[in-house]
Amino acid sequence: MTLELRGITKRFGTLVANDRISLTVEPGEIHALLGENGAGKSTLMNVLYGLYHADEGEIFLDGVPQRFAGPGDAIAAGIGMVHQHFMLVPVFTVAENVMLGNESTGIAGTLDVDAARRRVREISDRFGFHVNPDALVENLPVGVQQRVEIIKALSRDAKVLVFDEPTAVLTPQETDELMEIMRQLKESGAAIVFISHKLREVRAIADRITVIRRGAVVGEASPTASNAELAALMVGRPVELTVHKEPAKPGAEALVVEDLRVVDDSGHVHLDSISFSIAAGEVLGVAGVQGNGQTELTEAILGLQHHVEGSIRLEGRELVGRSVRRVLDAGVGLIPEDRQVDGLITGFTIAENLMLNRSRSKPFNRMGTIQRKVLEQFANEKLVEYDVRAPGIAATAGQLSGGNQQKVVVARELSRDLRLLVAAQPTRGVDVGSIEFIHKQVVATRDKGVPVLLVSTELDEIAALSDRIMVLYRGRVVGIVPADTPRETLGLMMAGERPEGSAA
Amino acid sequence: MSTTTEIPVPANAEGIGTATSTRGLLKTPILFAVVTLLVLLLVALKSRRGETTFRLAVDTDLFELPEVAVSSTAGTTTMVVLLAVCTAVSAVLVSRGRRTPLWLIAVFSVFAMTGFLCWAAAGEAVPVIGLLGGSIALAVPLVFGALGGVLGERAGVVNIAIDGQLLFGAFAAALIGSMAGSSWGGLVAAMLAGAMVALALGFFTITYFVDQVIVGVVLNVLVIGLTSFLFSQVMAENPQGLNNPPHFSRIPIPLLGEIPVVGPVLFRQTILVYLMYAAVAVVAWALYRTKWGLRVRAVGEHPKAADTVGIKVNRTRYTTLLIGGLIAGAGGATYTLVAVPQFGREMTDGAGYIALAAVIFGRWDPIRATLAALLFGFATNLSGVLSVLGSPVPSQFMLMLPYIVTIVAVAGLVGHSRAPAADGIPYRKD
């Protein structure tokens, strides 16, 4: 089935999320939609899927104009979507999730679960998925959950398949497997839309590439185009994709973690036997698939975890057992993994957010009173220094784009006298321009002699910034390897395989 | 990569994600121990003389079971021993990391109750049939209310307004039943009244995203005010014509009603009780075995996922809430169409909140919630029966019994329960 979008325009208030976007996807073709976060890719797909209604423009399937009042209509027309955030009910079984909305029933509306099981097995066998129809979705690994999403779409006889940032949660190996599945689907005649901001993947699999920026199509590219060309098209100016940095000049060991073990309230062990050290002026990258203990590691350092055993020493002083306040006073800076939740108070102004962790002492606080003049001056300086694009320091943090919000967090953390920087997912959901800037700041911090713990699920980011790389898998250290370790090796390590000859 | 080897999985790598603490499980044996001690204290501190008689039959039975008489002290002491055994079993299970099974909790409760009755009713006869049968009758509004609550919450709407649904149902049943001169008419009116409250709840919470708890509480207060006003201004003018509905009488079911103990307890009841049995079965079946039920549960767990497969989330929530309202309203009819066919101000006495507790105690499951409601009904009836028997416990304390049972049950026995993930969260499309 051929999918054609013609002149789709979608506005939210004054914001034009999609501006006259046109796109054609032929059967047996993978068409990549490349663009930064916030460029309007997801909005476009939500229009296609009937979740949003386009203000202008039309959708054609095999030349027939379509009107989708909701996802039900889109599904009936043969469109299937594999969502970035899986649309699966965690407490349902695979079969129940697959049949939901498309139930086969017996007498008086009784569910025919057997039919759903057969359907799951049949599709699962056809593509070699190995999915148990009776498993509870919440117990399945992320990669398998994604296959359930694919089965869900295929069980509805989807002819057009949309993959929305499908690799965000996968290991490199799982990504390769997904690519293989996508090729199989393409050969079976499906028209595939692949949404991504990852240049490498787009070039690897796409037959055609459409680049969108700020809601509008800015050009088509062929998969043979170079990374630099694609990035320039995506951002609108030439971008430096590689981070320039001098070789590290590591000093004395600054942060020493020994036998760290973190257990949560319900007794689950999240980290076990973690030992590593970071020298002053060194970046240690923590690689791993999301959910392998990275969050717990950063929280343990900050004093946010309750059941911590082992020791975390910063310049000889023990941090375990200290309150968060005292950990911060010891000179630890944190760029948290979710700025909206842990990094900013979105209803506060930029100025207020910039002094959140320093509101207790001079120069911002004198005898219990906030010094507004001092704060204003400080905030205005930081706005310029960290290139925060904002209407002013009195604007609330919630009004800013993701990249600018992150710059506010970075500005706050780096403008203190740091002894350790913990940066968790510092560029997640941030535009390429801001990524460039934040990466430079991380390197500059390192060059000032501060030890940096960098946690990221983006292997490219880890490789670009780290001096050494530690891989976490299921709460344990798989190995600590040099920064120039091949990507394939790192990928295997992220899946729990330890390279020969390395000591954990 | 040929240079890689499989990471040797450490012995306790399995432990990541599977190790559980016994802290949550410990609650049950501790509660058991406390109850055992309390019963022991009763015998030890205030031993009572005489025999306690348990009457297991009523006069109209076809086959009469004999009365069982035991010495009060001996009976209670025996039960204390049995309670201690149960406590020990539970403690052993928990020390092995297993949870206390439901049947053990049930057995323990029966022992505890028998021990207490042996002590409290020394020198008297305990009408076992009346105690149990009355419990069912008293539990009817709670069961209907809890079923309505389960439905709403499974679809993602917290229903604090169960009490309002019961009260409005009771009022409508009395008024319409009297006017129509038909108890069936009253029942239908009660169900519609319950649905009206549900509609109001849905209108504010589903369509306008108002906080569900607040709307629920406000609706309860509104219904109290409205029914009290209409009661004093309208009904009081003409109680004969407007507050005098014909009531449902007991209908013994042939054969089933003749089974010893079970028959008189379960099958010599009014039509409302039989409707309750049917409602429990139908709701449980519909929720777990039908397409409709699957969709309702999906909407309560992950509305966005339901939306993306073409299910109309808010429409599903409305219909489920309305069906729940119909059921809860039927519970309200019990107040005015059964024993005393007359409406009175605030006559539900907060039963809707007990039904809400039954929803949570029953972990949002219709069968478990029904059992919880039956337990509360039993506690209520027990306090009544004991005050008639002249128990040594002051009657004010006995009146507190159902509420104490509620708190102990919810806090001590529920354990870790998981509400539907989207319960209480309005669904809006971005």
TrEMBL record, chain A:
Residues 3-239, 255-499 form the ABC transporter domain. PANTHER family: CARBOHYDRATE TRANSPORT ATP-BINDING PROTEIN MG119-RELATED, GUANOSINE IMPORT ATP-BINDING PROTEIN NUPO. One of its GO terms (molecular function) is ATP binding. This is ABC transporter ATP-binding protein. Keywords: ATP-binding, Nucleotide-binding. InterPro entries: AAA+_ATPase, ABC_carbohydrate_import_ATPase, ABC_transporter-like_ATP-bd, ABC_transporter-like_CS, P-loop_NTPase. SMART domains: AAA. It holds the Pfam family ABC_tran. The keyword Nucleotidyltransferase does not apply. PROSITE patterns: ABC_TRANSPORTER_1, ABC_TRANSPORTER_2. CDD domains: ABC_Carb_Monos_I, ABC_Carb_Monos_II. SUPFAM superfamilies: P-loop containing nucleoside triphosphate hydrolases. The keyword Nucleotide-binding applies.
TrEMBL record, chain B:
The chain crosses the membrane at residues 30-48, 68-94, 101-122, 128-152, 164-181, 187-210, 217-236, 271-288, 321-341, 347-364, 371-391, 397-415. Its main location: membrane. It holds the Pfam family BPD_transp_2. InterPro entries: ABC_transp_permease. It is found in: Cell membrane. Keywords: Cell membrane, Membrane, Transmembrane, Transmembrane helix. It is a multi-pass membrane protein. PANTHER family: GUANOSINE ABC TRANSPORTER PERMEASE PROTEIN NUPQ, SUGAR ABC TRANSPORTER INTEGRAL MEMBRANE PROTEIN-RELATED. This is ABC transporter permease. It comes from Nocardioides vastitatis.
